[in-house]
Design a protein that fits this description.
- The protein has helices at about 20-35, 40-50, 65-75, 80-125, 140-150, 170-175, 180-195, 210-220, and strands spanning about 155, 155-160.
- With about 230 residues, the protein is an all-alpha fold.
- The protein has one domain (about 20-225): Rhomboid-like (Rhomboid-like fold, Up-down Bundle), CATH 1.20.1540.
- It has a two-stranded antiparallel sheet with strand order 1-2.
- The longest helix is centred in the middle third of the chain and has 45 residues, at about 80-125.
- It is globular.
- The termini are far apart.
- Residues about 1-15 have low confidence and may be disordered.
Length: about 230
């Protein structure tokens, strides 16, 4: 007697690691507060105190207040609107999930904070003393993409449910992998076009491509410091 096989069991679409889900909900709550709950004065104060502003760092920390120290991380939780938040949330769910499953929630939160700082640092280098305001998780998302490119593209391509089990490639092995190399070419190509003035769905808002690159380089080269799995 043969048993009739049932339909294949697919991973639920919203089966996200707790750390990723928590960050998505936190960013959504902040956006709702900005759009519907806070007064204009409170929104201005929130962005002044938590967004990344290069001009802050043209002088010493004395008299700057706490924002001098925490804004290189907190800016990653703010967004310029729901479209900006939705775009970052989509890529965070895709790439953040595989990284979070591999390194655990504590390492994930530390990775988030440090990749935000790395993204802000490169942005600062290109905008030293400027009054521009940077918000958004795209630098962190770029770092997660860089980290995922070290292990998530296996022989069967990128699978969100199993990618975290793949062995970690060295930097040289990653660059020698055709799938990873193609991903890098496309990713840096898009950001290069952004740098010279081609915007991809940004409307009138400038895209902080410097933060993207800073985050990606941090994730790609520093992921091994967070990876609990020994290199193959």
């Amino acid at each position: 007697m043969h048993r009739v096989p049932g339909p294949p069991k697919n991973e639920p679409i919203f089966n996200l690691p707790n750390a990723v889900l928590a960050m998505l909900l936190l960013m959504l709550a902040i956006q709702v507060a900005v759009d519907a709950l806070l007064s204009p004065g409170a929104v201005y104060l929130l962005f002044t105190e938590t967004a990344f502003i290069p001009q802050r760092y043209s002088s010493g920390a004395s008299g700057q207040g706490g924002a001098y120290f925490w804004s290189p991380v907190t800016y990653s939780l703010l967004h310029g609107g729901y479209a900006h938040l939705l775009l970052n949330s989509f890529w965070l769910a895709a790439f953040g999930s595989v990284v979070a499953r591999r390194i655990g929630w504590l390492r994930f939160l530390i990775f988030w904070a440090l990749s935000a700082v790395a993204s802000a640092a490169l942005f600062l280098m290109f905008h030293w003393g400027g009054q521009s305001i940077m918000v958004g998780a795209s630098g962190v998302v770029s770092a997660l993409m860089g980290a995922a490119s070290r292990f998530a593209f296996g022989d069967r391509g990128f699978r969100r449910d199993l990618a975290h089990l793949n062995p970690r490639l060295s930097v040289a092995q990653s660059l020698g992998n055709r799938t990873v190399f193609a991903f890098l070419v496309v990713w840096f190509g898009i950001n290069l076009l952004t740098a010279v003035g081609f915007f991809f769905g940004a409307g009138d808002s400038a895209i902080a491509w410097e933060a993207h690159v800073g985050g990606f380089l941090f994730g790609f080269f520093c992921f091994s410091l967070f990876d609990p799995i020994e290199q193959a």
